[in-house]
Amino acid sequence: MRWRSSGPYAAAALVAVLLVTTTLAGRGEQADAGFLQGRQLRLMAPAAPGGGWDQTAREMQAALRGTAGRTEVYNVAGAGGTIGLSQFVRFDGDPTQLMVMGFVMVGAIESDDAPVRLDRTTPIARLTTDYEILVVPADSPITTLAQLTERMRADLPAVSFSGGSAGGAEQILAGLVAGAVGADPGKVNFVAHSGGGEAMATLLSGRATVGVSGVSEMISQIKAGTIRPLAVSGAARLPALPDVPTLREQGVDVELSNWRGVVAPAGISAEDEAALGTLITDMTASEAWQQTLADRGWGDATLAGPEFKQFVADEQLRVADVLAKMGLG
Fold it and tell me: How far apart are CA 205 and CA 107, in angstroms?
């Protein structure tokens, strides 16, 4: 569902926006969102450049330009976003700070037993869903999913998976596929990386058998012909890759989506939380953001306010249960 703020908080935010707009319009300058009060919005991508969080942050930067002015994006890589999270919490009470996060961070917090958890942030909105894809180098002797799963059944540790952070969507998917084909998920040979660029380099160098990542991170290499797609993790084929079958189409009963969202620091005021929610959900309805979804192959998963907070709480419980069953929690 799409959320819009209402009541006195929304009215206060609107008045602030109108006041700032009126003041700056007289000077011929672009108006920032009112709650920023002339300050710059800063957006952390808690991963290395090239991955899904980095892409999301930079697409947000572009889509927010007309309403929030110049937005700074910066990267803090490592440990499935938990290093970035541990630094982000120092911005307690500051509404000009945002951090991209999602399914991968939820998994990393659980698998690493991270000391800093998401309850020290303010969930603002879920933005997108991105299905995973299994790929091999273009010159790999593996040409079909059936050939890959045959190798997994014969000698699972000999099949190495190159993906993102430990405990994230990629490792969970590898474990689920292993279990679905009758292998032991606890024996999956997963090579973790802090960013999509590093994972791709490992795959193309021959140091991994198969790559697993979000479709958006792989699609350019697929179209360039450097890698060969084997299967997507969605319930149906994706418009961006209509010729790539799903896992279930090929007899592997697994479906998994990787969502991404954005949080603010803990301790911000209710007024600022409402204004941020409006700013971000308005962004997701913009023409620029909708074009981004089409270009990247992301699904629109906008959810904000109390519903997003409940979603995050439910995901923490669900992911903890899955990882425990895989021996990763």
Answer: 27
